[in-house]
């Protein structure tokens, strides 16, 4: 199993550094850990490398912790979240209402509790279970899941002898596909009908009492034939093949193989933590997405991202200008709050020396992020 990427988001720099060092000390063989001081910089970091787990403080400057969680969950559904906060419990629970949080811990946190929460969130165990030793179960990191899905799509294309096989989301966007050409009509004129068929498949599965949809939708175009198979609430698979000259359906013969690919994709999604109960046959997606207004507490409703901006965040990609910006930022002396951590953290700090208190040159403040146009202006109106 590869190493999981964990991102710590806390403007109290000594807390963030101590959390990072503690996790490196105890779980370093499983984790790559970074820390950033703001939600805005977390989004930049995630554009460079999506994280498997975010450890988030709620009282961040600018984009607050619960807003960051809602935004990241929309853009990266596989990411898990642990909250580490100094807020009182009632305030924290209200802010996190309906948000996909694995655990809420309160400062100063016991390192044993934090480590246990991280283990639980990522599916790590101290001793490998028998079925995990066989390599068929257990959590998958972002890189592993991407590679496994890419392999499955390539194998499905080869076995079915089609042009391409694509994994789409519930809005018809292509998330991943095998080699081969994808007709432009798929990303243009067919996008809405595909979404409609996907929804119809989910409704039909519920009406038939099926745990997960088993329907295959077959249709032809002027030059191509298609087979669409719903995978789960937010995912579908599409097979695309050139239409034979005699217009005899060729994809229908591969129905059994298609169902096997769907089953294997569901297994990968389950091991990513996206699809729960894939093996037990329940139609359920872990940490089901909520609208931004529903996800935020009452006092912040209406302050969420407009749909178009949320979509742009989800499609954020690595850009050379972003990388150059991160390299050129000046060091900033951020909030250094007094905290009396437990003995373990003190020991970890002494072992790591002054590195714990060094401020990285790539730290980006909220004000600088706003000045550079990386976050929406405070005067932005309601949706």
Summarize the topology:
Elements: E1 4-9, H1 13-27, E2 31-36, H2 39-48, E3 53-56, H3 65-75, E4 80-85, H4 89-95, E5 103-106, H5 111-122, H6 130-133, H7 142-160, E6 164-169, E7 174-177, H8 184-187, H9 191-207, E8 217-220, E9 224-232, E10 235-242, H10 255-272, H11 292-295, H12 307-314, H13 320-328, H14 343-352, H15 366-371
Parallel strand pairs: 1-2, 1-3, 3-4, 4-5
Antiparallel strand pairs: 6-7, 6-10, 8-9, 9-10
Describe the protein.
With 383 residues, the protein is α/β, with parallel strands linked by helices. It folds into 2 domains: 4-123 and 288-371, Rossmann fold (3-Layer(aba) Sandwich); 142-272, Dynein light chain 2a, cytoplasmic (Beta-Lactamase, 2-Layer Sandwich). It has 15 helices and 10 strands. The chain has helices at residues 13-27, 39-48, 65-75, 89-95, 111-122, 130-133, 142-160, 184-187, 191-207, 255-272, 292-295, 307-314, 320-328, 343-352, 366-371, and strands spanning 4-9, 31-36, 53-56, 80-85, 103-106, 164-169, 174-177, 217-220, 224-232, 235-242. The strands form 2 sheets. The protein has a 5-stranded parallel β-sheet with strand order 2-1-3-4-5, with helices on both faces. A 5-stranded antiparallel β-sheet has the order 7-6-10-9-8. The chain is elongated and about 70 Å long. The model is unreliable at 128-135, 276-319, 324-341 and 352-361 (pLDDT under 50).
């Amino acid at each position: 199993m590869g190493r999981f990427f964990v991102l710590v988001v806390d403007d109290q720099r000594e807390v963030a550094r101590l959390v990072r060092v503690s996790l490196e000390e105890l779980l370093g063989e499983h984790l790559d850990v970074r820390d950033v001081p703001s939600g805005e910089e977390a989004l930049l970091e995630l554009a460079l490398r999506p994280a498997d787990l975010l450890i988030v403080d709620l009282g961040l400057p600018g984009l607050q912790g619960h807003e960051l969680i809602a935004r990241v969950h929309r853009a990266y559904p596989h990411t898990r979240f642990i909250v580490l906060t100094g807020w009182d419990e009632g305030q924290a629970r209200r802010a996190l209402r309906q948000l996909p949080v694995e655990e809420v811990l309160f400062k100063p946190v016991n390192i044993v509790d934090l480590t246990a929460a991280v283990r639980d969130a990522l599916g790590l165990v101290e001793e490998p279970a028998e079925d995990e030793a066989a390599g068929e179960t257990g959590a998958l990191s972002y890189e592993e899941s991407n590679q496994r899905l890419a392999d499955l799509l390539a194998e499905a294309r080869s076995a079915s002898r089609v042009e391409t096989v694509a994994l789409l989301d519930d809005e018809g966007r292509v998330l991943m596909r095998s080699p081969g050409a994808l007709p432009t009509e798929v990303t243009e004129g067919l996008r809405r009908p595909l979404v409609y068929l996907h929804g119809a498949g989910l409704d039909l599965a519920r009406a038939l009492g099926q745990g997960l949809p088993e329907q295959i939708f077959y249709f032809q175009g002027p030059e191509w034939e298609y087979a669409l198979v719903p995978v789960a609430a937010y995912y579908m698979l599409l097979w695309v093949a050139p239409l034979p000259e005699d217009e005899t359906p060729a994809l229908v013969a591969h129905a059994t193989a298609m169902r096997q690919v769907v089953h294997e994709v569901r297994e990968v999604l389950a091991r990513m933590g996206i699809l729960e109960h894939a093996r037990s046959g329940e139609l359920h997606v872990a940490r089901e997405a909520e609208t931004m207004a529903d996800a935020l507490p009452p006092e912040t409703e209406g302050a969420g991202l407009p749909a178009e901006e949320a979509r742009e965040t989800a499609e954020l990609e690595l850009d050379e200008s972003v990388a150059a910006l991160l390299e050129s930022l000046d060091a900033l002396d951020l909030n250094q709050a007094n905290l009396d951590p437990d003995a373990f953290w003190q020991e970890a700090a002494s072992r790591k020396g002054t590195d714990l208190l060094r401020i990285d040159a790539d730290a980006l403040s909220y004000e600088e992020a706003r000045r550079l146009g990386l976050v929406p202006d405070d005067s932005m109106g309601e949706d």
